[in-house]
Amino acid sequence: MSGAAERGDTRKRQVLQVREVLFPALGLVVWAAHFGVSYAANALACARGFADARLLGQPLVPAVIMGLTAVALLALGLVIRASLSGLEGSLEEGGEAEPRFTRWLAATAAALAALAVLFQAVPALSVPPCG
User: Fold this and answer.
1) Where are the domains of the chain?
2) pLDDT, one tens digit for every residue, the chain (131 residues)
3) Chain-centre distance of CA 26, in angstroms?
4) What is the DSSP string of the chain?
5) Which residues of 80-107 are buried (b: 16+ CB within 10 A; e: fewer)?
6) Is the pTM of this model over 0.70?
7) Contact, 41 vs 62, CB < 8 A?
């Protein structure tokens, strides 16, 4: 095998290893983004006087947060689907069970993040902004 081919294989292996390490955190990143943007939208609406604004007949802040929630749940569903789709086959891949474990971890973390997204979206419907 030539030096360039070996470097290419090594680079590909490194990228796969990084992906396997970061993939379980993806659900938590989506949750954190939803959390931050939801509170920023509420704070911005309060600071700029948009608390009573309406979007398509609905209060602006709850409508925006429900839209963000739908996007976050869709993204988390994709993470769960991608995680579970790689679980076919034998328990050990390449002599190690870690890739299969990290996929289960990613699916579980994304499912818990989806639950957290739902829990933090509920106050947007029940509590008035700036209240």
Assistant:
1) 23-126
2) 566 656 667 777 766 666 777 888 999 999 999 999 999 988 898 888 887 888 788 888 888 899 999 999 999 999 999 888 866 655 555 555 566 778 888 899 999 999 999 999 998 878 888 77
3) 5
4) --HHHHHHHHHHHHHHHHHHHHGGGHHHHHHHHHHHHHHHHHHHHHHHT-TT-EETTEEHHHHHHHHHHHHHHHHHHHHHHHHHHTT-S-S-BTTBSHHHHHHHHHHHHHHHHHHHHHHHHHHHHHS-TT-
5) beebeebeeeeeeeeeeeebbebbebbb
6) yes
7) no
